[in-house]
Structure to design on (958 residues):
């Protein structure tokens, strides 16, 4: 992936910039020792790495504002970073950039059960938001696979989803307000613990903006009462088409499971070999989970099983206990690890209209043969959010490039069938140069003009989201 | 409400502008006869009116683009209009503006039941969207009170809600994509029938932008399978506080009714006198509706009744038949008409955190005495969206001004308790000068800078949303 040449003037001024940051921020908040800075050279898209100029780890919104003001004055690019779990290179540094990490900002600022919200600093991890409210019987709904590690800051930047977002929506549906610091160091409040916004709804714009518009330091999040219980059913099919049709029919029937997860044969096989969850050896497998009281669960599962039975399943396994539920989920939750045992893999993320599932899976299978790279599919079928895992060998020259070309073909296919380049991982650097496939030049121009408003110098999170070719003139004008 | 002075140069060129529009558009699409233009001089905020320069009623996105291009070249302000049902003056013309109405654009362009969406021209009325899909067992969820008349264009402009939005969300939660024409006449596509957006999520920004950023001509809307059934329960209380607490407890228990409607004593009395729905004569009344299969409805209502009983209700009336359900809803649906029988009224729209309900109702009662104007409250309690109806006499000199001052005090109170100036009616001209109460100057500046991107000449929907004082320099610079 091409990256813009770093600004040599900035690099030459490193000592001065670090000194200014140190003078303004508490002790220990600025890191520039080479060995320590290395820990921030990449995120979870490990194929790409580059040590930043320095790393700043503030503890408060005020310190974030100070750091940004200094970088802004000095013309230093800033890469905001949550927990560094981006799969799209969303927090990849450039050599002339300062990493602004919110990892030390993990406090709960306010909980309000009557109005069902929690306000946190955005360095707090996703799971520990639920942790802060679960004794009172609440939870925070979006649940990315990385929820143990990923930060709310990154969830907001990428509009993250998760397996249970079919029912509860993704981050944007559970975010009520943010405190954001602009590149100029101005602190602005957007939204809050109430419905709707007066004037332009900037909250929807900020959510998913991948650190292009500002650094979100505090967030007001909707919390929900924990359901009484949950129970999955596993259904195996001899055909991807039929499994896809079953998903469609469940949704059409007006049922709203919390999750409908889909695994195809390559993924089932890899998972079985690794986790031994006792999955049937079939073409496609659905895990459908419903929530509620025991009576509600029984009623919903009965209707789901009835629909599944009309589609000639090879197996229907309804969970009868907490252990059986855990076993049904075990394979799904081990899928990424299982694929990783076989080889290196790249995890893609695109969305498609649900009805296009069979066609897209068939085409991915054909491309897999053409490229000579195996691929397993595991994804959130209910909302058409695909996660193809392409296997490759990082030590084999040319394999990464082949894998990337294959991935780009899959994402182009998603767009062709009426879908989108990204469901929850964001564009980052990974899909930056595919944006032209999704958007006409005038559409991209409007997005970039909106960035101009918030970050006229184009200093925030450089080289992400927008194709380098399209942003070149802007970056040069800003220097 | 102060309006900016119309541009005399534009008015002087009326004949030339109308001629250009006529030449570009099909016969009958341009109206400039004084008597016909009068029909567009106001929307549902009838206290304000002003005939526009001319009215354009295109039939296609292409014709909208042609009209906008001509107005843009001539520097003519454009006021987009749906069905003209705005309660906030969102479609109020200025004397130098062209009304661009989408009322003739009401076609269904595509229905896709597998992927659960419908694509329509935005002049289509809200209710007729459901009408187009109900035979197939689907419906469109947002249901403003004006749904028989209001257009999807206006729903998108104001991010409209409705009684059943507690469960299904407001427009922004049910809007998948739009075709929008910018003031320059450029047609852009935003979002689509898939989850998420790559890059900046402009869809969330467009929704609720009150015609400030472009004219939305086509929309892709989420449709949902119709529930098997629905049933309300009516609960009366002797205290607003206790009724508010009951709402809180229902939500905290993890129940998600489709609607929780609240009426206070003045509203109950007016409604009873008018519609004779047989409501109890009490301080506060809730109508709580749940949906699902008969078994699900029974289970949910049982839990709701159990919670209500803990709050000393004066009456609990569970519907036992379709007739009883209709009677329970009759009063609520007649409330606006009933208040209108007593006097002229102004319908406000603000949101508050649900827990602030008792305090806000008490304060409104006190202010009602101070101003000497009666007020009835009927609103969507589940999501804290209030609709105080202030009664006044339009023929009594000074009464409208007193009513507006009272309304402004109520909206300021909403902001003070952590709420928002608008839930679903928008800012329009009504709340324009209150925006400074909700937003700091730098917050407003960012909103206006975003408008600069889409409409640098500040020609779209003039004098709405932003305080005149704040926009003056921009409008002058643009002329």
């Amino acid at each position: 992936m091409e990256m813009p040449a770093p600004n040599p003037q900035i690099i030459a001024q490193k000592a001065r910039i670090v000194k200014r940051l140190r003078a303004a921020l508490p002790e220990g908040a600025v890191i520039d020792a080479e060995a320590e800075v290395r820990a921030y050279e990449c995120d979870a898209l490990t194929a790409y790495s580059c040590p930043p100029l320095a790393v700043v780890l503030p503890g408060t919104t005020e310190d974030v504002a100070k750091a940004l003001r200094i970088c802004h004055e000095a013309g230093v690019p800033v890469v905001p970073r949550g927990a560094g779990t981006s799969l799209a290179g969303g927090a990849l540094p450039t050599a002339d950039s300062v990493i602004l990490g919110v990892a030390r900002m993990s406090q709960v600022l306010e909980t309000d059960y009557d109005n069902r919200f929690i306000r946190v600093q955005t360095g707090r991890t996703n799971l520990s938001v639920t942790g802060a409210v679960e004794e009172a019987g609440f939870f925070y709904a979006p649940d990315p696979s990385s929820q143990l590690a990923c930060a709310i800051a990154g969830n907001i930047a990428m509009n993250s989803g998760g397996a249970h977002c079919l029912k509860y929506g993704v981050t944007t549906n559970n975010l009520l307000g943010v405190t954001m610091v602009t590149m100029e160091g101005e602190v602005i409040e957007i939204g809050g613990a109430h419905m709707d916004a007066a004037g332009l709804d900037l909250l929807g714009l900020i959510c998913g903006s991948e650190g292009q518009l500002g650094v979100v330091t505090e967030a007001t999040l909707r919390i929900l009462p924990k359901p009484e219980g949950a129970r999955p059913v596993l259904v195996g099919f001899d055909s991807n088409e039929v499994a896809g049709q079953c998903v469609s029919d469940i949704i059409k029937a007006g049922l709203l499971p919390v999750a409908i997860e889909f695994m195809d044969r390559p993924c089932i096989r890899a998972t079985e070999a690794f986790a031994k969850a006792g999955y049937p050896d079939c073409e496609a497998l659905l895990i459908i989970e419903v929530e509620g009281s025991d009576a509600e669960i029984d009623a919903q599962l009965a209707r789901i099983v009835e629909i599944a039975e009309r589609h000639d399943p090879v197996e229907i396994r309804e969970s009868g206990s907490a252990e059986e539920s855990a076993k049904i989920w075990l394979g799904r939750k081990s899928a990424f690890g299982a694929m990783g045992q076989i080889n290196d893999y790249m995890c893609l993320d695109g969305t498609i209209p649900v009805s296009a599932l069979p066609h897209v899976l068939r085409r991915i299978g054909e491309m897999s043969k053409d490229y000579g790279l195996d691929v397993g599919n595991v994804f959130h079928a209910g909302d058409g959010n695909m996660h193809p895992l392409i296997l490759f060998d990082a030590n084999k020259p040319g394999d990464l490039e082949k894998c990337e070309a294959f991935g780009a073909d899959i994402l182009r296919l998603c767009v062709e069938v009426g879908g989108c380049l990204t469901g929850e991982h964001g564009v980052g650097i990974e899909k930056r140069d595919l944006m032209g496939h999704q958007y006409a030049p005038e559409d991209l121009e409007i997005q970039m003009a909106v960035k101009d408003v918030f970050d006229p110098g184009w200093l925030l999170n450089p080289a992400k989201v927008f194709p380098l070719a399209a942003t070149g003139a802007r970056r040069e004008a800003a220097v």
